[in-house]
Amino acid sequence: MIPRLVLALLLISSMPLYAQSGSDLTWPQHPTLAWDDFKGQPPPHVAFPSALSDTGFKFQLICRSGMLDIDAYAFFSPTGSWVKPNQKTAELLKHEQGHFNMAEVYALRLRKAVRDAKISCDDRARANAGGQKMVAGFQADWENAERQYEQDTQDGTDLAKQAAASNRIDADLAALNGNQP
User: Fold this and answer.
1) Does the N-terminal or the C-terminal CB of the chain have fewer CB atoms within 10 Å?
2) Where along the chain do its domains lie?
3) What is the 3-state secondary structure (H, E, C) of the chain?
4) pTM as predicted
């Protein structure tokens, strides 16, 4: 899994972020992955990994009612994601789903943090700088969490640890979704 963050740092009036690049899927629109979503081709002569999910989160900083806000959503890029045809197992798909879900967890946490910070847009440059700093921190945290996920689950091959990680991510999603408008 190679995480990427699409930056859309615009401070404008209430313009929502739903502009996806190409055929990217957003978590709110398509939260459950299937092997048919993996459209990319595995590199030739690569023994490991068995699959790669191109996930991340997109965001747009905006001002709403004089306060800094953010639209942030996880995405999955079908063309950037692949699986070896003979490796399509339910266990591996659950692992790849974990990457997508984790991106949504960090998008939701970022939305909550920006809203809770209550940054005024009176000085847009200052608000933008504050928002960018928060995003950078969440990006670093998410990338570290991705590395830890791979390490803890041994790239999804330790089924007990994978189940524990999946349960933890699902619990985080459920808790965070209860806090979103």
Assistant:
1) C
2) 4-177
3) CCCEEECCCCCCCCCCCCCCCCCCEECCCCCCCCHHHCCCCCCCCCCCCCEECCEEEEEEEEEECCEEEEEEEEEECCCCCEECHHHCCHHHHHHHHHHHHHHHHHHHHHHHHHHHHCCECCCHHHHHHHHHHHHHHHHHHHHHHHHHHHHHHCCCCCHHHHHHHHHHHHHHHHHHHCCCC
4) 0.84
